[in-house]
Structure formats: structure tokens, C-alpha cells
Amino acid sequence: VRVSILGAGNWGTTFAIFANQVGIEAVLWEFDPQQAQLVADTRVNTRYLPGIAIADDVIVTSDLSRALDADLLVLAVPAQICRSVLQQMKQVGRRTLILSLIKGIEQVSLARISEICLQELDGFEENRFAVLSGPTIAPEIARGLPASAVVASASPPTARRIQEAFSAVQFRLYSSDDVIGVELGGALKNVIALAAGVCDGMRLGDNAKGALMTRGLAEMTRLGAELGARKSTFSGLSGLGDLVTTCASPWSRNRRVGERLGSGERPKDVLASLVMVAEGVWTARAARDMAVMHKVDVPITQAVCDIVFTEKSPGDALTQLMLRELKAED
Ligand SMILES: NC(=O)c1ccc[n+]([C@@H]2O[C@H](COP(=O)([O-])OP(=O)(O)OC[C@H]3O[C@@H](n4cnc5c(N)ncnc54)[C@H](O)[C@@H]3O)[C@@H](O)[C@H]2O)c1
User: Fold this and answer.
1) Which residues does residue 99 pair with via DSSP β-bridges, in sequence order?
2) Nearest-CA neighbor of 18 among 179, 140, 151, 131?
3) 89 Cβ below 6 A of ligand 1
């Protein structure tokens, strides 16, 4: 198989290195020609994945047409950019599969990545789409540490093909047919991770963080079920698994953004300083809008939106969360 990874950021570069290690021919596409050239020449992606060597036989290019000739296209660009990349492609080969590594929801359209693929690519069918999600912090995988994730597709053979192609001794993949659940699990946990980071920044302690993660998972599950996901998916790798990792990891960008906000930095300064994408920021707004539309209560997501977009103080957001109407645990 020949695989093209679209997006040579932290995760896309890691995935290309990993694919190469398991014997798959990999092309890595980066939209910025200078950056692509630099990575191709130096065989290291200093901007997005410093200190990790990229094998000589991984082709790095900014020529999208060169990347399109593949059996599998792997999407590893930020969610808010994915549509514009697909619009440049317009269509893919009639047998080409697409695997999304993206963990986000598009603002305004409130579309998941699978929906964006169907909207933008002529003749593309949902049976050729899969999403991979789980606790997969890229720098750990790049260092060869063991990890596990889930691959979901509406077509079990598609999920199976990808599961078999990318499973290895250090990477164990499970399969699922719950595309909505796996896409939403990965996207929504970034919002809760941001909130967990706010807890860290405010030094609220481990009780508060444990409560936040638990109620965050309840919130993710509630919204997901309303949007057509299976509830049990949120107890799996793309839900609970990823949530635990992201809320704890010093590597998590979403958690770190929250930590900076919780320690008093202003949202616009934090956002302006980011080199790599923190999907939770934009997905918070999309998730809140989805929740409003479907009349689902998402207090933590709303608190994240208030802190990031209306500059509510984290202290006020916390007070508001704690003083809500008392209710049963569900
Ligand atoms: N980094 C991780 O550990 C990790 C793990 C799992 C999933 N993800 C998800 O993978 C996705 C990508 O994350 P990342 O960490 O690799 O992001 P990143 O910020 O490291 O890289 C983003 C990539 O997108 C490219 N890009 C930026 N603007 C572009 C444009 N206008 N057109 C085309 N390309 C553009 C950048 O050049 C870069 O190659 C996100 O949805 C993220 O949630 C990341």
C-alpha cells in the first residue's frame, strides 16, 4: 500500500515515520513549500516534531497532486483547515480510502470530518472513510512507546484493512463501526482537557480535576448520544482513554492552553502565542452550538467558551459551575 499523509505537523509527521517503520510507502504533504523543503532536506521537522529523524524513503512534498496518488489518504491537518484542503483536491481515486486523524469539529457548519469529506469530494462514499482516535500523544509514539487506539468505519472491511495495516508491537488498534462516536470522542475530549488545564492553572487540586473529568465525560456522552453516537464508545479509547491521557499529559496542548488561562493569562495572548493547533478552543464553540441546537446541557463546555471567548474569569466560571441547580448523578 501507498499512503499519503496530508499535514506534516506533530501528528502527521509522527504517523509518516510510524508508517515507514511498519513497511508502508509514505508520502508526507506539507502545504508550506519552504517548510516542506526544509524537512525534506534536513530529514527532521524541527518546527513540529523536533529531535526525531525522518527516514530518507519518506517522501516530503508540498505538491498536492503528488500526494493524491495513494491507496490511503491520511488527514492530519487542523479541523478548521480540512475543508480547504479537500476543496483543493476536489476528488480522490475511486478506490482510495481516507483515514482521519483529526480531533475537532468545524465551526459554523458544525460538521464532523467524515461529513466534510462527503460534502467536498465528488463521488466519495462513507464506506471508504475511517477515523483513528485514542490516547495517541504524538511525541510518545514518535519515541516508540506503546499505545493503543480505535479505528472506526461504517464499513467493517475498511476498518479491518486499516487495523491490520497499522497494528504493530508498539501500536495496538481496535476496530469499531461507530464513526460518529469515535469522531466526537476525540474532538470533545479536547474541550474537557482544556477545562482540566484551567483546574491545574488555578491549582484547584486533584479532587476538582477528577470531578471535572468525570462530569466532562458525562457531558461528552450526553451530547454524543444525542448526535447519534453509541454511549459505550465514550467509555472506550476515543473517550475515557483519550480523556485520561490528555487531562494528565504535560504534552497536551489543549490542557496547557487551559493551564495558562487558569493561571491568569489573557485568552488573546495565549492564542496568539501558539505554534501548533489547540483544537479544543474552536471545538468548544462548535460543541456548545451543537448542544444549544439539540437542547443538551453542557456546562463545562459552556464555561470553556465563556473563559476563552468572553473573557469571563476562571474563578467566576468555577463559581457558576458549582452553584448550578442541584441534580441527580446520571
Ligand atoms: N499532536 C498529537 O499528539 C495529536 C494526536 C492525535 C490527534 N491529533 C490531531 O491531529 C490533527 C493535527 O494535529 P497536529 O498536532 O499534527 O497539528 P500541528 O499544529 O502540529 O500541525 C498542523 C499541520 O497543518 C498544517 N497547516 C496549517 N495551516 C494550513 C493550511 N492553511 N493548509 C494546509 N495545511 C495547513 C501545518 O503546516 C502543519 O503541517 C489535529 O486535529 C489534532 O487534534 C494530534
Assistant:
1) 74, 130
2) 140
3) no
Determine contact, residues 313/321, Cβ cutoff 8 Å. no
- What's this model's pTM, rounded to 2 decimal places? 0.97
- List pLDDT tens digits, range 6-31: 999 999 999 999 999 999 999 999 99
Residue 200 CA to residue 208 CA, distance in Å, equals: 9
Rounded Cα distance, 93 and 46, in Å:
32
Residues 311-323, buried b or exposed e (16+ Cβ, 10 A)?
A: eeebeebbeebee
Calculate ∠ Cα 291-293-295, nearest 5°. Answer: 60
Give the C-alpha separation, 244 to 255, whole Å: 11
Residues noted as catalytic: 189
Collapsing DSSP states into helix, strand and coil, what is residue 193?
helix
For a ligand 1 pocket test, name from 4, 5, 10, 189 the mutation site with the most ligand atoms within 8 angstroms of its C-beta.
10
Find all residues with CB under 8 Å of 137, minimum gap 6, and list them. 147, 245, 246, 249, 251, 252
Measure the CA–CA gap between 199 and 46, rounded to whole angstroms.
Answer: 31
Rg for the chain (alpha carbons), in Å? Answer: 19
Element (H, E) at 162: helix 156-166
According to the model, what pLDDT value does residue 132 have?
98
Instruction: State how far the Cα of 311 lies from the Cα of 307, in Å rounded to an integer.
Output: 5
Minimum CA distance residue for ligand 1 atom 23: 9
In contact, 301 and 193? CB cutoff 8 Å: no
